[in-house]
Amino acid sequence: MHIFQIRKWVLESPPIEWAVFQLRELLIGALRQGPVPQHVAFVMDGNRRFAKSHRMETVEGHNLGFEALAKVLEICYKSGVKVVTVYAFSIENFKRSKYEVDGLMDMAKVKLAQLLQHGDLLDRYGVRIRVLGQRELIKPDLLADIERATELTSRNGEAILNICFPYTSHDEITTAVRNTVIDYSKPLPVLQRPFSESHIKHTIRSRHLSVAAERIRERSKSPSSRGESDIEDSSSSSTVLNPDSPPTDLTPLGKEPDDSEAQILSKFPDPETITSEILNDHMYTAGLPPLDLLVRTSGVERLSDFMLWQCHENTDIVFLKCLWPEFDLWQFLPVLVEWQWKRKKEAERKRLAPSTAGRSVKAKSA
After folding, report:
1. How confident is the model at residue 232, as a pLDDT?
2. What's the pTM?
3. pLDDT per position as a tens digit, 229-284
4. Is residue 73 predicted with pLDDT exceeding 70?
């Protein structure tokens, strides 16, 4: 019997499992007392190498990788992480043989079904599944399963699981730029101007004429002033024929605006106003918290075209030697503790910065 299987058997024995569960709950509770990353991403690498090194079938290695993912998701959501993003399938994988691509697609279908079987985990933490990537590249039967999974969890809103499938960061950035260009190629909507000069003139004159017409009607009812009112009626008939009609010098309501007004109304958005925030709003992760932590297993130290836009100056990128099926709380805990330590040191440095600046100014004045 292999040493890995012996270790797994020992850890799954009831006494050891109970003790490990209690210790895990204690450690996760301690993590919640400090700052917690709101967005964590994983590059799940090493399933094949794990299977090969343990003389297993490749499928068994991927199955163990999925079990590791389920455990890591529970640790993240229980610790307070709001968004988890996993790299499941790269667009570059389509360059492999058709046999291998079909096998990966079939495996993805099985894994998605297994993920939905963990409905208690998704419902317990209110996890909503989102699939990020080029859906038109996915086989129709798998796409139907993906849409069903997203629909079943669409009402959950406390946490999010982003599954990047099929995805590359270059494709995401290209799509975001293309959509931004499309938005900026549309003319701005024509704005109605209820307070234009002509509209104000028309309103004021209509009111004055209505008041004058009312006065003439009141005078016409009095017998003593009938003769006088007849004179006023004849003299004002040319101006009070239709008090509600607009003056002849005003622009008719149905008239098209002149060239200068049309040019103003049909303006396009200024491309100089395109900023990184606007591009960020067109990314797959728009509206989500910034990426705080990115973890890759298997000892490979590269991002492999994953979350290039989302990685910023405050993102911690951690490369671990362990393979993904071996990744659990005991490998993840030091990463989270180090992240918390850095955030606490940064907060302390910001807190002490004003007092340090004040002392330096006093020293210079002295």
Report:
1. 47
2. 0.74
3. 444 444 444 444 444 444 444 444 445 555 554 455 457 888 889 999 999 999 99
4. yes
Closest CA to 323 of 303, 304, 295, 302: 295
Q: Are 115 and 153 in contact (CB under 8 A)?
A: no
